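Renewal narrative, Specific Aim 1. Our central claim is that a sequence can be written position by position from structural information alone. The example that follows is taken directly from our test logs and has not been curated for this report. It begins with the structure tokens describing the chain, in the order in which they were read.
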């Protein structure tokens, strides 16, 4: 018989991609700054399980785009999908990818969409902070002031939408945070353990290093 699990593992196998100082990503900056710093200094190998989770996220995103693109939903037009964007700062670049840009035809209004998969939409009381941060950055760069975080439940395709209004202050604070991070990284200065004592540390690959304040 075939071993389909092994075939999936083979299919998803990719060369490990290395992050480099000077190029940063909006999806990362909302996390603990020390954890992010370690991820540049001591990259960990992405596990097979993590690859599957990322791939499932991509599949969910493609499904959401198909729904938005469909003629069966004539009130909405999908203007852009997976649009790469970049913000050039003096010493570094922030680059990312907008999931989708929609046109709500009735209002003639453009809306940015950040698509996320989740286990249960009923459990969501508000959008995740990191997801809002990503969207704020994309709204800032694209100059589109309306955004939504669209959650899709993996097992049922049930959805939940949270609207997010653009805040220039949040976007500027984010860019400042990138700047602080860049300085800490190039000066090899260990950042403060921002998330210490929270659940985030329970899932952190760098907990041992962090607890000993190792760089
Ligand atoms: S253990 Fe916690 S505080 Fe330390 S780097 Fe990881 S997330 Fe940050």
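The sequence written for that structure reads:
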């Amino acid at each position: 018989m075939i071993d389909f699990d092994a075939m999936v593992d083979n299919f998803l196998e990719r060369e490990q991609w290395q992050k480099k100082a000077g190029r940063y990503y909006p999806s990362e900056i909302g996390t603990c700054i020390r954890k992010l710093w370690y991820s540049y200094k001591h990259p960990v190998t992405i596990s097979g399980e993590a690859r599957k989770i990322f791939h499932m996220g991509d599949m969910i995103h493609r499904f959401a785009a198909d729904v938005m693109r469909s003629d069966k939903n004539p009130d909405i037009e999908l203007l852009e999908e997976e649009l790469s964007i970049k913000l050039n700062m003096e010493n570094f670049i922030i680059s990312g990818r907008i999931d989708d840009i929609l046109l709500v035809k009735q209002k003639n209004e453009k809306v940015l969409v950040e698509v996320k998969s989740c286990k249960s939409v009923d459990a969501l009381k508000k959008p995740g902070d990191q997801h809002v941060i990503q969207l704020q950055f994309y709204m800032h760069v694209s100059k589109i002031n309306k955004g939504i975080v669209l959650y899709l439940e993996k097992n049922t395709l049930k959805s939940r939408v949270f609207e997010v209004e653009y805040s220039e202050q949040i976007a500027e604070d984010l860019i400042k945070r990138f700047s602080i991070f860049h300085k800490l990284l190039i000066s090899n200065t260990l950042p403060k353990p921002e998330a210490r004592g929270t659940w985030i540390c329970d899932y952190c690959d760098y907990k041992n290093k962090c607890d000993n304040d190792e760089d």
